TrEMBL record:
Coiled coil: none annotated. Gene3D superfamilies: Glycogen Phosphorylase B (3.40.50.2000). One of its GO terms (molecular function) is glycosyltransferase activity. CDD domains: GT4_PimA-like. This is Glycosyltransferase family 4 protein. Belongs to the glycosyltransferase group 1 family. Glycosyltransferase 4 subfamily. Residues 20-192 form the Glycosyltransferase subfamily 4-like N-terminal domain. Its EC number is 2.4.-.-. SUPFAM superfamilies: UDP-Glycosyltransferase/glycogen phosphorylase.
Amino acid sequence: MFSRLTPQHRAYAPPVHGLLGKVFRELGHDVTMLSTALPGGGGQVQETDHATIHFLSGTTPGSLDDRFWRASARTFDDLHRQGPFDLVFGRGAATWGFHHLSSAAGRLPVIAHEGTYPLWLHQLERRLPGQAAALARPLALLRLPLDRRYRDCLQRASVVVCNSPALARALRRVYWWNPPNTDYIPYGFDLEPWPATSGDAPPEDPPRIVFVGRLTTDKGALDFIDILARLRHPTAVIEAIGPVSDKLAGRLMALAKEKGMSDRFLMPGPERNENLPMRLRGARAFLFPSTHPEGLSKSVMEAMAGSLPVIAYRIPGMDVLVKNDVTGWLVAPGDTAAMAERLDRLLSDPSLAKRTGQTARQRLDQDFSPAAASARWVNLLTDVVGKT
């Protein structure tokens, strides 16, 4: 299907996400990436399966600053003279140097990509939801000097592609006086490593509830113990898979011991991605009490791939994956009693857990497959380049 995208376009991406670079290459684009210098210093050119990467000498590894913006604009102009580009792509403030220092600025379309909520925007959305959004305007004005370059890149872009509809709406709302043109394209999730029979595994006894991710306070780590203590089911186990600091691990185990839950709260540590399908197999549900900024949560998508119903907090971006009574349940942030109630419902009705989990996997396959995501990118890229 990718061969139908003609003519092939040459895209410049300062520094583009590797996964999207691979998608662009598969769609027939010639991708060049400009990135900050390697940690060892100096610059070099590397060929990968998704892009030609130019590491810019004289820049600070991992830092977008004046040196990067000057070097990226200068290198872009040199490469553009050798072989003209058709498209510029970037995240955050990566394209600020192109917009202000390149001789091609204003003559090439720019696509910006936002994959996660900026922390400040997420906090603003949490404090002022729904109809109170108009009150965000004075707070946004206070922030203007801090995000000038980021805002400039969004507002100058032909389109800002977000991986959740909630983020696309939030960016338009917070910059209401000159809202960026936003669109929504999710990441594609490959179901091949996840067997379709995951949901057919016999329920474990005692029933196991799983979480996958970093164990931090903003990922809801402290809520696990309270949720567990509120469950009516006397033997259910919560298994929190992921890295955790020694300090927080000690705090969690002390809290579990205080509540009499030491043998029912497990922290086995991180797990390799390729082992997750088997680790999630047989679990009854996936618990995700995170209030951390989430654009499109990979952990939740992995749970859906494993045919698990998801119970999560209702934070911006989560509703694109979790649909109440369909693929899982969303509850108000911090409402551990409501989370425990939903879990008790699943623990007392294994057929409901299985049915909801299977629906979650079907929805992932239908709406978030690599083919579905690629088709949306084809339409968007063809439209953007065709308008120049």
